[in-house]
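Exam prep: given the inputs below (a chain plus 5'-deoxyadenosine), describe the expected output before reading on.
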Amino acid sequence: MTPGPAPRICRAEPGAPSRPGVMGSGISDMGEATAPPRKRLFIRSWGCQMNVYDSGRMADVLAPLGYGPAAAPDAADMVILNTCHIREKASEKLFSELGRLRAVKREREATGGRMVLAVAGCVAQAEGAEITARAPWVDIVLGPQTYHRLPEMVARASRAAGAVVETDFPAESKFDHLPEAGAAAQGVSAFLTVQEGCDKFCSFCVVPYTRGAEYSRPAAAVLAEARRLVAQGAREIALLGQNVNAYHGDAPGGGTWGLGRLLRELAEIPGLARLRYTTSHPRDVDDALVEAHRDLPQLMPFLHLPVQSGSDRVLGAMNRGHTAADFLRVVERLRAARPDLALSSDFIVGHPGERAADFDATLALVREVGFAQAYSFKYSPRPGTPAASAPHAVPEADKDARLQALQALLRDQQEQFNRSLVGRTIPVLLTGAGRHHGQVAGRSPWLNPVHLSAPGALIGQVVPVAVLAAHTNSLSGTLAAGAAMADSSQRREEPAPA
Ligand code: 5AD
Ligand code: SF4
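Solution:
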């Protein structure tokens, strides 16, 4: 599974909801420093929502050192490239960015200034040695489990001649050593990492190698962070984990809680209107989780549940640990519990050994389920994974043709889903200003971006919106009469349109 949303949520999601200013850009929403920032920090984040969350936490860790946000890398005293390794071209992108930054760094040094350049994330974890060899101007290379050591690394980098490299999996958890989330807190819709790593070892996936073994944060720490996020204005929290529904954190009174129980406790937090989680694995959907979907109006009726393929042969080769029928049964249980649930998924075409008949089985599964949205990828070998050395590679032309056919079907389903919302009044969480004056942007329960005219004072509220038009990736509508609307008012009254 995954990620991603995002995803694990290790999913580079095209068009995924992102925190403005962090994902793929600077860190304009980094944590508040206690003193005015004296140094400027720019973080570029690729890939999944967990990387976006991590970028926020790195900003938190560096804020006490006087780092505030920079608008662009050229204006920064420190640049962090937070990388994603899930699919191909990750290292090419990184090295081309590093080449550009080398020139900026040189110019800075020519005028007596300094720029600290760090590479973080999964490419750093997987290719640390190659980065220091090919780009010796990089000062710090750090894997995803060592962010809490950043201040020490920055200090060491200012003394060291070569790069400071930290890509081990330290015995202490970074979560115990990071300051309270600040940067990640800002905004109506917040991310909260509850679980990291993966023990499932799907044939194609680097995550178990780059993010390490599965780890769940204790429930008390998660609840405390959620309460802080809500106190800082969050109305929606998306729980993140590479394998988020494998969550089994220490419970406050001893024992452990699964994700279903954790969601129940989170739903008790006053002011928290919406809960989501991503990314989950079909094997870890237990009864408690299904019951949480049934009972909690705060838990949004949208689930990203990667299946990857509809062929049992390929699912076996992928080491997914479930069949297509298992997946369909999980979907059935979830839809019985929450009839308005809409589904999203991830698919890979062209895994080694995939034949035309296997691909047809994938199309059949897509037709049977009906997805509101999905991500599909051509298989790309990731060094060190079992599939990378498997026989029967699929020719590139076949992969291309399959991807096109699958994406056409998924696009049709997505458009059909969006069209089915036109004419309905749906609860929309207003998350920020829109693109045009007088417009605000929000999210439907099914994660569609929604644009409408409304007073900015309503941002942060769930309001009823009459949907007027559907576009491929968003909806537009108008504020419907009446006061703020609880998400629960739409529950189970209308089945999911997908
Ligand atoms: N090739 C293509 N897609 C991949 N994914 C993960 N690894 C690979 C790979 N080697 C996709 C899966 C996963 C999503 C985050 O990325 O579909 O769920
Ligand atoms: Fe998801 Fe499988 Fe990768 Fe684990 S190994 S993160 S379950 S795709």
